[in-house]
Write a structure and sequence with these properties.
5 strands
């Protein structure tokens, strides 16, 4: 079955579950947006929060490219990333799990193979999972540090499936961003959009 499922239904045929991290397993997006704003201010940019929300799931390099065009700047993406990620990591103790999704991971631990597939850098993804005591649940972690095309390309999900030794159509994805859902669809995986679940929680 390919497509969205209601509530937290997981197909019986699913051999693996792939979770996005930020905004899905852990409530880290407020901290991410805060560190985006803090870092942008060092470049004299006051960015519209709605604009940043629309970029959720995009690689930092693309977002900075768009910001440079929008605000007529020439911010170096690599330099910006180093500054922003240092700020984020310094505050990582503030990150908490998203209980409704984290419980799914805990309940399926040992029952299905599981991976985290994130557009974040490995240091921060692993840091968030350690902070919330979730890291031990996952056999595979794919991040922006891996040499794989980012979401909405299906490559990150396909890479996780390959490492788990599971066929893509036997994987189920939990995602909170449009780009991630498009990636799951392109990978021919079933998926759950967690946003309605979080709004009703």
């Amino acid at each position: 079955m390919v497509g969205p499922l209601k509530a937290v239904d997981i197909p019986e045929s699913a051999e693996a579950i792939l979770f996005d991290c930020d905004g899905t397993l852990v409530d880290s997006m407020p901290l991410h947006w805060d560190t985006w704003h803090q870092t942008l201010r060092t470049y004299d940019v006051e960015c519209d929060t709605d604009f940043l929300y629309q970029q959720a799931g995009s690689p930092t390099e693309k977002i900075i490219r768009d910001i440079n065009l929008r605000y007529r700047r020439s911010i170096d993406a690599e330099e910006f990333t180093l500054k922003k990620e240092e700020l984020f990591y310094a505050e990582i103790a503030k990150v908490e799990e998203i209980e409704i999704i984290a419980s799914i991971a805990r309940n399926n631990h040992g029952q299905r193979k599981m991976a985290v597939v994130s557009g974040g850098i490995r240091k921060n993804v692993v840091g968030c999972l350690k902070q919330t005591n979730l890291l031990h649940l996952f056999e595979v972690i794919v991040t922006a540090d891996d040499d794989v095309s980012p979401k909405p390309a299906p490559d990150v999900f396909l890479a996780a499936a390959k490492q788990l030794q599971v066929e893509p159509q036997a994987c189920h994805v939990f995602e909170d961003a449009d780009l991630g859902i498009r990636a799951a669809q392109a990978a021919r995986m079933s998926y759950t959009d967690v946003r309605p679940l979080l709004q009703s929680a």
